UniProtKB/TrEMBL annotation:
Recorded superkingdom: Bacteria
Family designation: Belongs to the HAD-like hydrolase superfamily. S-2-haloalkanoic acid dehalogenase family.
UniProt key word DNA-binding: no
Organism: Planococcus kocurii
Claim: Zinc-finger is one of the keywords in the record: no
InterPro entries in UniProt: 2-HAD (IPR006328), HAD-like_sf (IPR036412), HAD-SF_hydro_IA (IPR006439), HAD_sf (IPR023214), PGP-like_dom2 (IPR023198), S-2-haloacid_dehalogenase (IPR051540)
UniProtKB keywords: Hydrolase
Name of the protein: Haloacid dehalogenase
Any single Pfam family the record assigns to this protein: Hydrolase
Length: 232
C-alpha cells in the first residue's frame, strides 16, 4: 500500500531504523557492462549484456530451487559463457576475464553517492546476492566503504534472495524488527520477496515498469534514489 500524505506527497515512516540497499541495478548500473562487451565483440554488446544479465538471475534462482549453490561470481561467469555461445562467439579466457573484471568496476548511478552521503547519519546497509569476491571489491572500488555500516552477502548463508531465509539472515545481522527495515531494490522480484518477508520496501523503478502481479505492492515507489532524501 502506497504511503501518501493528504497533500499528495509521501509520508515517511519515522520508525525506520535501517536503510538496506540492493546493489545491482539499484546503486550500480549493470547495463553499462554493454560498453565493455561492445569493445571486445563489436556489434554484439547489447545482445551479450542483455542475455548475460537475464541468465545470471535465472541461474541463481535455478540453483536455489535445485539446492545447488554456487557463488554469484561463478554464476556470472557461467552466464557470460552462455551469452557468448548464444551469439556464436568464440570463447576467449582473456576476454572473459576482462568482462568479469569490469563487473568489479560497474559505474554508480549518477545520484547514488550523493544520496548515500546525505543519509550518512542513518544506518546504511548493503544486502546483496553478490558473493564477497565480487561485492566487496565493487563497493571498495566505488569509494562507498565508509558510507555503509554493514555489507551483507547471502554468500554467508548460501540462500539467494528472494528466499525468506535470505532476508532472515539480514534481519538477524541488523538486530531489529522486520518492520523497522526499509529495503530498496530496482528488481521487482526482490522487492516482492522483501515485502512478503515483512520488510518495508521502496521500489527504485528506474525503467517505469508496472508493479509485479504478486499481491505484494511496495510501500514506496521512486524513479531513483533521490526519493529517499525525504528521510533526511
Amino acid at each position: 500500500m502506497f504511503a501518501e500524505s493528504s497533500k499528495g506527497g509521501w509520508r515517511v515512516d519515522s520508525s525506520i531504523k535501517a536503510f538496506v540497499f540492493d546493489v545491482y541495478g539499484t546503486l550500480f548500473d549493470v547495463t553499462a557492462i554493454k560498453r565493455e562487451c561492445e569493445e571486445l565483440y563489436p556489434g554484439y554488446g547489447e545482445k551479450i549484456s542483455q542475455t548475460w544479465r537475464s541468465k545470471q538471475v535465472e541461474y541463481f534462482m535455478l540453483r536455489q530451487l535445485m539446492s545447488n549453490y554456487a557463488t554469484l561470481y561463478a554464476i556470472t561467469h557461467d552466464a557470460l559463457k552462455y551469452a557468448l555461445n548464444e551469439n556464436d562467439l568464440q570463447p576467449s579466457k582473456e576476454n572473459e576475464q576482462k568482462l568479469l573484471a569490469a563487473y568489479l568496476h560497474l559505474p554508480l548511478y549518477s545520484e547514488s553517492k550523493e544520496v548515500l552521503t546525505q543519509l550518512k547519519d542513518k544506518n546504511l546497509v548493503v544486502f546483496s546476492n553478490g558473493s564477497h569476491d565480487m561485492l566487496d571489491p565493487l563497493v571498495k572500488n566505488a569509494g562507498l566503504e565508509e558510507l555503509f555500516d554493514q555489507v551483507l552477502s547471502i554468500d554467508d548463508v548460501k540462500e539467494f534472495k528472494p528466499t525468506p531465509a535470505s532476508y532472515q539472515y539480514a534481519l538477524e545481522q541488523l538486530g531489529i524488527e522486520s518492520h523497522e527495515v526499509l529495503f530498496m531494490s530496482s528488481n521487482g522480484w526482490d522487492v516482492s520477496g522483501a515485502k512478503s518477508f515483512g520488510f518495508q520496501t521502496a521500489w527504485i523503478n528506474r525503467k517505469g515498469m508496472p508493479v509485479e502481479e504478486l499481491d505484494l505492492e511496495p510501500d514506496y515507489v521512486f524513479d531513483d534514489l533521490t526519493g529517499l532524501l525525504k528521510w533526511k
